[in-house]
Design goal:
Shape: flat
Strand order of the largest sheet: 1-2
Structural class: mainly alpha
Strand content: under 5%
Number of helices: 67
Radius of gyration: 44 Å
Helix content: 40-55%
Number of strands: 6
Length: 1423
């Protein structure tokens, strides 16, 4: 092997290596192609070129270039990422072709003198006029003096620099040639007469037809020949004649085509020549009649006048035709002269003797704004408040919105200009740009630009690098710029209305829990990563860490900011810079949004050095002095509600984080300090005092939700009792702070509810009960049941008072706000009471009866509550898909809740929503009816009320989408639906009126099951265990349902005279068996969902409020529903994944696992029941997905489909799926979920059929279904190409096939390769009617239609027709020949399956005779 030369090698070593290389015959790494020297007479054909040099010589006219070619070297260097590729405005105008070689590209770019001189074409000057120099009376030019220059020498008009001598000579020549430049009066009169004689429609705009006497661009000068100008005029007249013969539409079409093909710079050059040749005064005065008529036309307003585009260079916009002509006919303003100057320059002023018109243009008045819209979008411009400025608005100049940009007449700043301004060297401009961007982001989050802008402002800014701009601005040394950057960052990350909605639902059932705001679109992992071991997974984690900040921020904005060390910078701003109160509030809001992102982000906030210590010491001090001003200049040293909210969100992320806050950061002392006194005694502004105490209660409630901070409850018990006693006193209707007071009371009730749940677990923990996970139970909390029982009487009294206050219109809204929280407290009390040793059943039952009769029933029947229930459907997120529509300002990398404008639109959170009240009431009813079974019948009216029934019907037909914008509200609505179903579960067996709606409740339960979100697995388990497989809710099973199905089948057979012989047992009998097996079916599905057991146990602890076992109030990541939508097929799919192989034709295991037959049978029984009686519940599953999953019956085993129960049920499902109403919706061209295409699955089915089918009729029907004519020809090609051997065993008859034969034969086949395969299978005897009756009829139909078709076709198709017809004519098999020639129509009742002509129709006979006769004549000639 050859080695590389080393620096230490001598010349002898190098020569020796060279000799070794030459003798080895190895190819060189580079070839040198030497270019011949034309000056020496070297030709291009010889020489030491490489291979292929001769061809290049011929193509390039004998010229060669020195070329070095290296193998495997790309022509272009790879781009460096993540830097954007550089764009050259010159490269875009060059024309290149794919087959161009490097030599051609170098030739075009060669600017060497030798390359330029060889392409010179001399200009013909034989006819050019020659003028002698002008004679003067002086021998030498006159000496010029500087004092005379200004008056005698004109300034150059084009702005170029000329010497004084050159300017003097130009002035002299101008004076001498002045007479020659002016036209004679006769010529002027002739030109005027010619203009007047033109038709009115020939004088148009620059881009339209204009009749002229001579060409403006081409003069003929330089052409060879004495009469070049005459040739030019002749060509010009021909062009004019062609244009005159064209219509106006044709002219405009040709114009558009030319403008699309020509270089824009060339078009501008042509227009400039036209402007130079036609004086502006003439163009403005032409056709006054036409001009006046155009002015009288009404101007059509464009619908998109307010539309704008983002980050685009201002482009030419096509105005309406009348506006274009009107604007372009206006003469441009004259250049500014010295007399127009407001101050006249003096001679003694240095460097002021030269007039510069291009600089003085900025002193002119701005042109008037547009008076109408445009057809195309324009660049968006904003004012300093972020308001979009319409292009037609005339904004005064004193507002400072006009600048020297690309569109000086338009006010406002574009996003591109704001980005440029944010990098200015003047800090005031940087601050102004960032503040404007902050306002734009705030309005974009509020959806203010949705109807005016094309695209998303948020996406545009992030794609342009907004987060990098803000991160750099945070490092600015100027505090004003830093503050503006913080404000913009807060506008980007935080939506104030989202936070308000989350705070308002905190007191709802499980309202303290929330989903992490992680992006739902995550980068897909490689398939190989799924099978890697732990060591390789660490390598994958390192790969994630090696990603650039740009890639991380593109997928997740918050994660990208954390990668850019945002937290240390915010800590520096709070600790060192100590900014204004507004900036401090913005920083705390940003930290809160980061903590909501995920538990890992919250941990990073806690782990950031000195960040939380700064927050605690500066904004949550244990002592402070009252501020001297109502609005303090600094908030340092004062407690802030935003800081307390940050602690609450951090505590929500997990038990460990909450313990760190309580113990390491001394939050317990802050809670004692703030809650031991009344809000009016906190030396704070009243509103801020209410806010911070509200957040303190919420933080305490979150901690109590983990069983923590309960010792504080005992210490502050007097303060809590005092706060409860003052509830009615502080809720004055005239109090301006009433909304804040209501939130404070709700937070207090949430705290007491969580403490009650924790105290209820004390006895269980004290007894040392081991948790269901097998872990040791946590230590018992310091608060016991005896500490909380004394509050029940006081709170029950409050509840009675608020129910009575519903009659008072002034207090009605406040009462409706607080009643749900009291219902939740009572539910917690009675739920935990039934688990205590001190539980007294008799006294509790009497107490519950009294509670029901005195409070719950009057509350439910109150007219205010009834009016509230009427809003159930309009407030629903499930029923109103439009209410949760994903707006354009919600982007995948920065998810939000889309709560903009929630107060003005109906929804679950507004005051008119019944969701919090009904959810609290449903929870209480679930608890008390579990204790006292007889109370459930008293609430029958709730389920039978018209608004509730209409709401449930609407939910049973809804298909809600899943996203972050809907999930947080869908979770609460799922709770209400579940509670209504639980009440129905208690009432259906005992109330006949409620039992009439049992199918509706069952339908709602079936559609709710795949809607349930992560964290609701316990609800899914309860639905599966109680309602889904309950005989009481499938009333058709015991009310004549199977018999009705049997009668329907008999009636269908009588009408269609179509008997399916494989119906070994009718569907009615199969349904009867399925209803009897419902308990076993339920056990089968619960067994196959056992992998969700751990999630179900966590969800159970959360939903049953087993607080000491809860690890986090942050719900699982929102990756999708808790159960897949195709869960009824789960046993089949699981069996296939364990035993089946995707290629078909074999199995990974020799025998089925134990119990597999029973599981498949139960799965098919459940599917049959759903298809017949609950068809709406399966509408979320595509028909092609149903067919693909049922195909697992054939692919999971070699004999599973031959088992008698499986065969019966699969036949029944096949007949249901192939009903005429279902066949139209079955689209096999759509890939089933989880598969790349249906064709891949069908290939596995064909291989399995050939291997193990044994001619089974059911399997044969399954294989024939995709061969219908409307599906892809690929599957038919697979049968007649790769798997043609299966035709011998595909013995399904026309009577056994439940699909009409017309779906296979119509329309006629048009695939020529497939037709040839059809014909070959017939002629070779592979396809026979005794082996494959169905496909024999199908193939006969298509071949017959093809050979006798009269449609015009390509030559290849026509030749194939003739060939087939001749071969048929000479067939020796007379039966096949007659079948092919005399086939008429498919006829299932016939013995052969089709009708035949007795003899060929005359047209067909004549065609056959002509083709066969031609063949005979050709054979005779050949003889």
């Amino acid at each position: 092997m050859l080695r590389r030369p080393k620096p230490t090698d001598s010349e002898a070593d190098l020569l020796k290596e060279q000799e070794t290389f030459l003798t080895s015959g190895a190819p060189s790494a580079a070839n040198v192609i030497r270019r011949p020297d034309k000056r020496r007479g070297e030709g291009g054909g010889g020489g030491g070129g490489g291979g292929g040099g001769g061809d290049l010589n011929k193509e390039n006219g004998g010229l060669q270039r020195d070329m070095v070619t290296i193998e495997d070297l790309p022509d272009q260097l790879p781009s460096l990422t993540p830097a954007p590729p550089k764009k050259s405005r010159f490269k875009a105008s060059r024309v290149s072709f794919e087959d161009d070689g490097p030599e051609e590209r170098l030739d075009r770019a060669d600017t060497h003198i030798s390359a330029v001189l060889c392409r010179i074409v001399e200009r013909d000057t034989s006819s050019a006029p020659i003028s002698l120099p002008a004679f003067t009376g002086t021998a030498f030019p006159k000496v010029l003096h500087r004092s005379a220059t200004s008056s005698q020498v004109p300034l150059p008009s084009n702005g170029g620099k000329k010497s004084i001598f050159a300017r003097q000579i130009a002035a002299q020549r101008l004076m001498e040639g002045k007479a020659a430049l002016h036209r004679t009066p006769e010529a002027a009169q002739k030109h005027k007469h010619r203009e007047q004689s033109l038709p009115a429609d020939t004088s148009m705009d620059t881009d339209q037809l204009t009749t002229v006497s001579c060409p403006r661009l081409v003069s003929g000068q330089g052409l060879v020949g004495p009469d070049s100008s005459a040739d030019t005029m002749r060509i010009h007249r021909e062009n004019q004649a062609k244009i005159q013969a064209m219509s106006q539409t044709e002219i405009l079409d040709e114009q558009k085509q030319l403008l699309s093909q020509l270089d824009p710079r060339l078009v501008e050059f042509v227009r400039s020549r036209r402007a130079q040749s036609v004086p502006s005064s003439v163009s403005s005065s032409k056709h006054p009649e036409a001009k006046s008529s155009e002015e009288n036309l009404p101007l059509k307003k464009s619908d998109s006048s307010g539309a704008a585009v983002l980050f685009q260079k201002p482009q030419e916009v096509d105005m309406e035709k009348e506006e274009e002509e009107k604007e372009e006919k206006l003469s441009p303003p004259p250049a500014m002269m010295e007399k127009d100057l407001p101050v006249k320059p003096q001679k003694e002023w240095v460097h002021m003797d030269k007039l510069e018109p291009e600089k003085l243009e900025w002193m002119r008045d701005l042109p008037a704004p547009r008076r109408k819209g445009t057809k195309h979008a324009m660049q968006a411009r904003f004012d300093f408040n972020g308001t979009l400025i319409p292009p037609t608005e005339d904004v005064p100049t004193h507002l400072g919105l006009h600048h020297h940009g690309e569109e000086p007449e338009r006010a406002g700043y574009s996003l591109q200009e704001l980005f440029l301004l944010s990098r200015s060297q003047i800090f005031q401009q940087r601050s102004l740009a960032l503040s404007t961007l902050a306002n734009i982001l705030s309005k974009a989050r509020a959806g203010k630009y949705v109807s005016h802008l094309k695209g998303s402002v948020m996406s545009t800014l992030l794609d342009a690098g907004m987060i990098f701009l803000l991160r750099f601005a945070l490092d600015d040394s100027v505090e004003g710029v830093m503050s503006a950057a913080v404000s913009a960052l807060k506008a980007l990350l935080v939506c104030a209305e989202d936070e308000e909605c989350l705070d308002s639902t905190f007191s709802w059932f499980r309202g303290l829990a929330s989903f992490p705001l992680l992006p739902s679109v995550q980068e897909e992992e490689d398939e190989e990563d799924e099978v890697l071991d732990e060591i390789m997974k660490e390598t994958a984690k390192e790969k994630e860490e090696k990603k650039s900040d740009h890639d991380v921020a593109r997928q997740d904005v918050v994660k990208g900011l954390l990668r850019m060390k945002l937290l240390p910078r915010l800590r520096y701003i709070l600790e060192v810079v100590r900014p204004s109160p507004r900036v401090v509030q913005d920083v705390l809001a940003v930290l809160t949004r980061i903590a909501r992102h995920s538990s890992s982000s919250a941990t990073q906030v806690l782990d950031c050095p000195r960040l939380m210590e700064t927050v605690m010491s500066e904004f949550l001090p244990t002592s402070w002095t009252a501020p001297s001003l109502p609005v303090p200049q600094s908030v340092y040293g004062l407690p802030l509600s935003a800081a307390m909210k940050l602690l609450r969100v951090l505590a929500t992320s997990g038990r460990h984080a909450c313990a760190r806050l309580l113990n390491s950061l001394a939050v317990r002392e802050r809670l004692s300090c703030l809650l031991s006194a009344e809000p009016g005694e906190l030396l704070l502004e009243p509103a801020e005092a209410l806010r911070i105490t509200t957040e303190a209660y919420r933080l305490w409630a979150v901690a109590a939700g983990y069983g923590q901070a309960c010792k504080l409850y005992i210490d502050l018990y007097p303060a809590l009792v005092k706060a409860l006693q003052s509830v009615h006193r502080v809720l004055g209707p005239s109090d301006p702070l009433l909304p804040l007071q209501l939130q404070r009371v709700l937070a207090l009730l949430s705290l007491l509810t969580q403490v009650t749940h924790t105290a209820g677990c004390h006895q269980e923990l004290q007894a040392g009960v081991v948790s269901s996970q097998g872990d040791e139970c946590p230590p018992p909390p310091p608060v016991s049941w005896g500490h909380v029982t004394g509050l029940q009487v006081s709170l029950l009294g409050h509840f009675k008072g608020f129910v009575k206050s519903l009659d008072n219109p002034v207090q009605k809204n406040s009462s409706l706000t607080l009643i749900p929280a009291y219902l939740l407290y009572l539910e917690a009390y009675y739920h935990q009471l039934s688990r205590q040793n001190c539980f007294k059943p008799v006294e509790t039952l009497q107490e519950l009866e009294l509670l029901t009769s005195e409070l719950l029933l009057p509350l439910l029947s109150h007219n205010v509550v009834q009016d509230l229930i009427k809003n159930l459907k309009s407030s629903s997120v499930v029923c109103n898909v439009q209410s949760g529509h994903l707006g354009p300002e919600i982007i995948p990398s920065l998810p939000g809740l889309a709560c903009a404008g929630w107060r003005d639109s109906p929804g679950p959170v507004v005051s008119s929503s019944p969701f919090p009240l009904l959810t609290g009431l449903g929870l209480l009813l679930e608890t008390i009816t579990g204790i006292h079974k007889g109370l459930s019948c008293k609430f029958t009216g709730l389920l039978l009320s018209e608004p509730v029934v209409a709401y449930l019907r609407s939910c049973s037909q809804a298909t809600p989408a899943l996203s972050h914008t809907r999930a947080w509200l869908l979770r609460h609505e799922h709770h209400l639906l579940y509670l209504l179903l639980r009440l129905a579960h208690r009432l259906v067996p005992v109330e006949p009126e409620v039992a009439k709606h049992a199918p509706l409740y069952h339908q709602v339960a079936l559609v709710l099951l795949p809607w349930l979100l992560p964290g609701s697995e316990y609800l899914a388990h309860e639905l599966l265990s109680t309602i889904i497989f309950s005989k009481d809710f499938i009333s058709e099973g015991h009310s004549g349902g199977p018999e009705a199905v049997e009668l329907g089948e008999l009636k269908l057979q009588e009408e269609t005279h179509h008997h399916t012989s494989p119906s070994l047992q009718t569907v009615g009998a199969l349904l009867r068996d399925a209803c009897a097996q419902l308990p076993s079916i339920r056990g089968c599905f619960l067994t196959h969902l056992a992998h969700l057991e751990s999630s179900m146990l966590v969800s159970r602890d959360t939903l049953l409020s087993r607080n000491p076992w809860i690890n986090s109030h942050l719900l699982p990541e929102l990756t999708g529903p808790a159960l897949p939508s195709d869960w009824p097929f789960l046993p089949l799919v699981s069996l296939y994944e364990r035993t089946g192989v995707s290629g078909g034709g074999g199995l990974a295991a020799e025998e089925l696992p134990q119990g597999a037959l029973g599981a498949v049978t139960h799965c098919l029984q459940w599917l049959l029941l759903l298809e017949v009686w609950r068809e709406e519940a399966l509408k979320v599953i595509l028909p092609v997905a149903k067919l693909a999953r049922l195909s697992c019956v054939f692919l999971s085993s070699s004999d599973l489909f031959l088992e008698r129960p499986v065969q019966k049920l699969t036949w029944g499902l096949f007949r249901l799926l192939t009903r005429r109403s279902r066949l139209d919706s079955l689209d096999l061209n759509v890939p089933p979920p989880g598969l790349a295409s249906f064709q891949d699955l069908y290939s596995a089915l064909l291989a399995q059929y050939e291997a193990v089918s044994f001619g089974d009729r059911l399997f044969g029907c399954w294989v024939l279904l995709p061969l219908q004519r409307r599906y892809s020809a690929t599957m038919r090609l697979a049968v007649f190409g790769e798997h043609v051997g299966m035709l011998r065993s595909l013995g399904v008859t026309l009577e056994q096939l439940s699909i009409p034969i017309e779906r296979f034969t119509s329309p006629p086949e048009d695939s020529l390769p497939l037709l040839r395969l059809y014909f070959r299978s017939l002629v070779t005897g592979v396809l026979k009617p005794c082996w494959c009756p169905v496909l024999y009829v199908v193939v006969l139909s298509h071949v017959n239609s093809f050979i006798f078709s009269q449609d015009a076709a390509a030559q290849e198709v026509e030749a194939a027709r003739h060939t087939m017809l001749r071969k048929i004519y000479y067939l020796t098999d007379e039966v096949l020949k007659n079948h092919l020639l005399l086939f008429r129509l498919p006829q299932p009742s016939s013995d052969v399956g089709f009708d035949m002509y007795e003899q060929l129709p005359p047209i067909r006979a004549k065609r056959l005779e002509s083709i066969a006769g031609l063949q005979d004549s050709s054979d005779d000639k050949g003889d």
